[in-house]
Predict the structure.
Amino acid sequence: MPIAARHVSLDRTPPVCGLPCRPGQQPRPVASPVGSAARMNEPENDEHTVLVPSARAGALAGAASAAPGADNVLPTGSRLGEFEIVGLLGVGGFGIVYRAHDCSLGRDVALKEYMPSALASRSQYNVHVNSARHTDLFQAGLRSFVNEARMLAHFDHPALVKVYRFWEANGTAYMVMPYYHGRTLKEAMLARTGPPDEGWLRQLVTQLLDALALIHAEQCYHRDIAPDNIMMLDDCRPLLLDFGAARRAIEGMTQAFTVILKQGYAPIEQYAEVPGMRQGPWTDLYALAAVVHYLIDGHPPPPAVGRIMADPYVPLAQRYAASYSQTFLAAIDAALAVKAEQRPQDVAAMRALLGPSDGTANAPARPAAATPDAALPPPALVAAAAAPGKRRVMAVLGLLVIAAGGLGYWALERGAPVTTIAVTPPPPRPAQPSPPRAVTPVVPFEPVAALDAIVAGADPGRKVDVEVENASVRIGRDSLKLSVRSSHAGYVYLYMVGSDRSNFWLLFPNAIDRDNAIRAGQSLQLPGKRPGKEHWSLDAGGPPGTDHLVVMVADAPRRFDATGLTPSDMFNEFPIARAAELQRAHTAKTALFAGQPDCAGAACSPAYGATAFTIEEVAH
């Protein structure tokens, strides 16, 4: 008697965003973001990034036509998973940044694509290397793109760029970030006629040091801090841009690419890798101190390479003692020492040199009653008046700006003039009872973010490849079929979040097929036909939309007793309400829904590899 087939639909309920993405618009062919590893990183733009005026969004391709690699730009209306390209933000030598619409969440984002224009080109959606001799260079940049994204996924700090989604597909890689609004610190300063006060500077430095402490703890270094790589957001916080791993990886393998260093901000150890001149936390501290020097003096310090023999640098403590405290200036001077060993060696040492604030660091700068050169209002650096000449034209156009080679992008909007208002302090009021404690709002649970956390926690040394038979499946007609290959032996787990994001499944292993072991280098077919076992399938059941999936290969079997995983007669499910409750209570650094190694009381490896991909369900 034949064994009956068992199956589950890929999704069951109405979509958040169907196809086409916008009413009345026919979608272009869908690019399938399915690849060997879904990871986060940003393809680095070079110093020749084209700036595209938002007011001319209808002629984006023409506006960027002079840029290298401009002919590689995806056309407006293209789809990458749930993201629809609605405009071009910038084109650089190492990547392209698009303005995109997240059809699932109904918000605009910035989507960055790895595209080293000197090495590769596009054929429709697919990116291919121009010459076989460039393959290693292209792959080196791609690996750095992916690894840096994984690094950023570990970090959550208001002064670091947030990454929403990331994946490899079509021979390249992508990452999705917020669509930030603000202006660079350099642009903000150029619109001023006077330097900020110490209170404002301390607040800025404190927030950036906090971000650096976080990345330094993971042995990661920025290595390109400068005024044009710091963005001042509209919500009054600085944002550190441009980690640039992809560009540096390619530059490090060939002399054909010129290493770009920002004169005055790069310390001596970045000019040559020689014994005794290692890069480390002190490298970033030098650059941050150089930024403060620029904010105070209007110019960066002399280039480090010119300070070796006869140092022309005059300490800030000698030049600006009348305007800033000696403690603050001496700390900045110490971080600007030419020799790395003479600088503070880490963020903690820098904080110690800066000392405690005098109480003004967090206080808003009061508007001056008589002069527009008063201290900058913290910390958005709003222009006191429209800057003359070219800057004014740019502000009027509302340029969408891409930081050269960086992670950042933003809408550069026209700043309103600051109005000076004289304020009379009100008479003292009777003491009032303390207001009730504010209730912290509950952050909605996002199951796709839970999948991202699983991928972010993966061991970079464990490579997981997924090949999908069809990245786009027809509802009621097609089934999902994939093969998994792992660099390490282990145990395979397949997760899925449907297009409406109301179901969070563990599809494999399941009630029918529990044999999830895989050998190193073995290709495991899912769903698989096992001799003597009932067959199961994954049928496209609708509605139209994007299904998000993750394959995890763990060194040891995993248990999910702390995740709320609920078994059924076929597939296991993480109930959304329970998953949200458990996620809010989860404080460990590990991904909750990756489970824990089940070692039966013995020591075993907690490591795993993981990759993410998407499937597009389309109406037949």
Summary: The two ends are 34 Å apart (CA to CA). Residues 181-397 form a domain with the Transferase(Phosphotransferase); domain 1 fold (CATH 1.10.510.10). DSSP finds twelve helices and 29 strands in the chain. Residues 135-154 form the longest helix (20 residues).
